[in-house]
Structure formats: structure tokens, C-alpha cells
Request: fold
Amino acid sequence: MRGSERVFTAPSESSRSPAGTRSPALAIEGVSKRFGSGDDTVLAVDDVSLTIERGSIVGLLGPNGAGKTTLIKCALGIVLPDDGSVRVFGTDVSGRGRRAAYADVDAMLEGARNDYWRLTVRENLRYFSTISGVDPDSVADRHDRLLARLDLTDKANTAVRDLSRGMKGKVSLASVLAGGAELVFLDEPTLGLDVEGSRTLRRELRRLAVEEGLTVVVSSHDMTTIEAVCDRVVMMAGGKIVADDTVATLLSAADRDAVRVTSADINERLLSTLDQRFDLRAVETNGPRTTVEVGVVGDRLYELMDTLREAAVTVEDVRTVKPNLEDVFMSVTGVETDVIGGPDGTTSGNDSILTPVGDSGGRPS
Reply:
């Protein structure tokens, strides 16, 4: 965090786990938080328990109002929970060990003033190292590596106020990592970054987790980043955790395998047949060609091909469609993402632009 919100102090031996043990980086147990009173009470976080192991990258997803930001602030000590406990590297943050617990923690929160714009890029790194209790000269090599890997070396002596929005985002990330924190929270870290900048950020986060054991909690609507860098994804809705598993497991559990077929021979009669016999999910007509997306797995694929052949359809294009994290998110929460895919507007996995069946013009009458 930055400015008046920063609550972190120099590392302390009391924050370390006893010899021979490795406490999780973060352990949240039965945390609840309410805002307001009486009829206006809002239960933002409802009895949430969550453990994050060291060296992992965990994505936190949820629609607006799901409680994820409140949960992060409870974990950071910015908001005090009404019930439950938070332990950071084995230390309970509610008692006298609070300062020690946050010694190796830092965060970049969306909308906060993350850097001092009058200072240069390098001066920001040195400043935030200092207030973390770290001698900036002792981590100068680390700063040089961060600047190089985030493509900021040429801007090291440039005032932050003179940088582009994407560059400022990189400086915020570098400042969070400048003091050597072991657990970092990143809220929308790719906001404002171009495609290459987002790729650079993803690459650096993975490197830090693998090579240096950094633990990262990422909250983002950028599904490409979540899918690419996270070992595990936690989804929230209505203040509760509704899904918590590895990306691979979540994707494999999504029943969204489909085939997309394009042909000029697809007519209303065939659409009606497909709708009756199969899971016809989407239809899109572009000039003389029509593209349909049909949910089929296993032997049903052969049945679909036989149906097309019987209707004298010449297939111009056929491709399989695999579920992506956005599909899982929508099925679990029932809410569409605010941003589909990456910052460049592209999608990952299922890049369908077809009209879902059931929408106007979608399902044949």
C-alpha cells in the first residue's frame, strides 16, 4: 500500500515460524464483516476461511459486491473483521504481533495513490524500500533487476508524473516488490498496461514465485492474467467462497466442450433439427455463411457430423471450443465478467462472438 495506508514495518524475528515448521503465508479462519446497522446492515464477507501456502499465486475473482475487496482489506488489517481470525506467516494480526505479522507484506490497491509522482522511478523504489525498514543501498541490485525485467531501466531517472499510465502501473508493481516483501496483494495489476506490458508482468510474477518463493494474491477481471499465472483460483459471490481449486481442475470440470461449424448450407430447417437433437448454444450469420456452436462430446460428435452430411451441408470450417476461466466464472457465479479476456480486448480459449441461443435472433422458431 502507499501513503497513509501503509502499515508495514521492518522484518522481525517474531514474525518467523518456529524452527522446523512452515506456516502458511496467509490463513483466514471464519472471517465475517458487516457494514451498517439495523435494516441497512450489509454482510460483505460471510464466514470465509482460506489458506494460502508460501510461494503460490492465487487469483481472487468475483463480481462487483462479492466481498473480495473487503476480504483483502481484512487480510491487510485495513478493515477489522467482526468475527474470525487472520494469521500472516503464522502470526495472529489481531494482537500485539500485528506489526511483526505485516513485516514482509505489501500491497498495490486499485485506485490508491501507489507512487509519488514527483520522484523518479528509482527514487520511488528507494523510498518504499526505506519505509519497509530496508536499507535501499543493500537492495540496489534487486532494484536494477526489477527495472530491467519490467522494461523500466530507460525510465529509471524519469519522474513518474511524466510516464504513461501503463508505465506508472509497472512502477507501482516495482515499488511493491522493492523491499523484498514475501507476500503481496495486487488489485487489478494489469489495469492500463498494453499487451506487452501485461505479458511482462505475468512473466515476472511467475519468475518471482518460482525462483524467490514470492506469494501473490491477485484480484483482477483480466482472465488472461489469472489463467496464465495463478496456481489456484478462489471465486467469491455474495460474500462467500463458491469455488476454490487449481485452474486446471476448474477448467476440466466445466461442461462447455463444443464444436463450431461454418457453412453456407446451414438453413432454418437444419437449425431446428440441431436445436432438437443437440445442445445448440449459439448461431451467427455473416453474409451467406452461418456459424453454429454445438455442445457435443465423445460419440455425439459423430452424430453431429452424420446430421450435417444427411442435410447435404458442405463444411467450410470446423473447430473445437474449449472452456476458459470466463466460462467457469459465469457458470459458478451466474455473472458475466466486466472485462472479457486480456487488456487488448482479445479472449482466451472460447473466443465466441456468436449470438447465444435464446437471445433475440438466436434460437430458431
Summary: The chain has a mean pLDDT of 83. The radius of gyration is 24 Å.
